[in-house]
Design goal:
- By secondary structure, the chain is α+β, with helices and mostly antiparallel strands.
- The chain has three domains: 118 residues, DNA Polymerase III, subunit A, domain 2 (DNA Polymerase III, Chain A, domain 2, Roll); 124 residues, Roll (DNA Polymerase III, Chain A, domain 2); 117 residues, Roll (DNA Polymerase III, Chain A, domain 2), CATH 3.10.150.
- Helices cover 16% and strands 42% of the residues.
- It contains six helices and 26 strands.
- A nine-stranded antiparallel β-sheet has the order 14-11-12-13-26-25-24-18-22.
- Strand 20 and strand 21 form a beta hairpin.
- Helix 1 packs antiparallel against helix 2.
- The longest helix has 12 residues.
- It is elongated and about 75 Å long.
């Protein structure tokens, strides 16, 4: 293999593919990037592949002059370090002989020992003719991911909530995530493809990688779900995809999330999103592990004009913040929430207004933004 690459484009591709490379594994080949240089007429193509046994990513970079097609399997960390260090070089020449790769700049040469390329798993391929393939606009998909991913569990023994539930039906897409103390549901994104139901749980690592691969919000993303994998293709459907990401699915049954959404909330307050977020961030300053809750106090009169947030931590102090309410329906109520859970939701809301719905101090609260975002958060006990 011998190829002359645009250094900046190569580094971007290595950084993206490295997200799918295993950090710890008894198989050193999975800590490598698989490089394949091909030529189609005068056009050169370098395909980089990373895999960790759960997620695999194949990414193409076009700014390449391929002089000799070939393959190489090289440790990802050293490859990334060398390409990043050659910051003054517009191009780099990669040449492979045996299991080693040589990288040349104007005044430097690096020789890296690798492994036989045949020891690496086959790169992911998108099943073009698979039944049930759906398409969605990249920007819409990224928005649904951002509004749910933060609420997933982290290494919970209930494996099904370590990922995000994806549901496609009636030409619409929705995603749901929960960690047992909160639940985020986002709807939106018109779908292309057959109108048949699709449901699966996608690991958080794969969705984080999907977001990194999106650079044009109008570019389509195609999604295919097999018995044990979700496969994503980025690029125009009539062309070879510029990237293909395959991920094992999370096993298990997702909780019946429809049953968790309260339907009898009789108190409703509308806020300016930025003001409410600022107030919760400030109130959270005087909380700690033992006193993590922030108290929300709505006045007893209908038409109350402000919300009072209070927090207190032993040996630290206390805080009291008033937040204007744009409209309020219902009687007064006091309720406590983990402020970080509220802040996390407000971060992903782009609308200027947000609604909080409540029932009682021991019942979950609901944060809504339009018809597309619903967030349920459990209250905390206040001393």
């Amino acid at each position: 293999m011998k190829a002359v690459c645009d250094r900046a484009a190569l580094l971007d591709a290595i950084n993206l593919v490295s997200g799918a490379v295993a950090s710890r594994t008894p198989r050193p080949q999975l800590q490598c990037v698989h490089l394949q240089a091909t030529r189609d007429g005068d056009a050169g193509l370098l395909t980089l592949v990373g895999a960790d046994g759960e997620v695999s990513l194949a990414l193409q970079t076009l700014n390449v002059e391929v002089q000799e097609p070939g393959v190489a399997l090289i440790p990802a960390d050293k490859l990334r370090q060398i390409v990043a260090a050659e910051e003054n070089e517009p191009t780099l020449t990669l040449s492979a002989e045996g299991d080693a790769l040589t990288i040349k700049g104007a005044d430097a040469r690096f020789n890296i020992f690798g492994y036989p390329p045949a020891d690496f798993p086959a790169p992911p391929e998108f099943p073009r003719d698979a039944a049930g393939v759906i398409g969605v606009r990249s920007g819409d998909f990224a928005e649904l991911i951002s509004k749910t991913l933060f609420a997933t569990a982290r290494e919970n023994s209930r494996y099904a909530i370590n990922g995000v539930l994806l549901v496609a039906e009636k030409k619409k897409l929705q995603m749901v995530a929960t960690d047992g103390r909160r639940l985020a549901l986002a709807k939106g994104g018109a779908l292309s493809g057959p109108d048949q139901p699709m449901k699966c749980i996608i690991p958080t690592k794969a969705l984080n990688q999907v977001v990194k691969l999106i650079d044009d919000p109008d570019e389509p993303v195609r999604i295919a779900v097999t018995e044990n994998q979700a496969i994503f293709a980025f690029g125009h459907p009539e062309e070879a995809p510029r990237a293909v990401l395959a991920s094992n699915l999370v096993e298990g049954a997702f909780p019946p999330y429809e049953d968790v959404i309260p339907k009898d909330q009789d108190k409703k307050a509308v806020f300016d999103t930025a003001r409410l977020s600022s107030a919760f961030r400030r109130a959270a300053i005087l909380t700690n592990e033992d006193s993590r809750g922030v108290r929300m106090t709505f006045g007893p009169e209908k038409g109350v004009e402000s919300l009072r947030l209070t927090s207190r931590a032993a040996e630290m102090g206390d805080a009291e913040i008033d937040v204007p309410i744009e409209s309020y329906e219902g009687d007064g109520v006091e309720i406590g929430f983990n402020p970080q859970f509220v802040i996390d939701a407000l971060k992903v809301i782009e609308d200027a207004k947000v609604t909080i719905e409540l029932k009682a101090s021991n019942k979950p609260g609901v944060i809504r933004c339009g018809p597309g975002f619903t967030y349920i958060v459990m209250p905390v006990n206040l001393q």
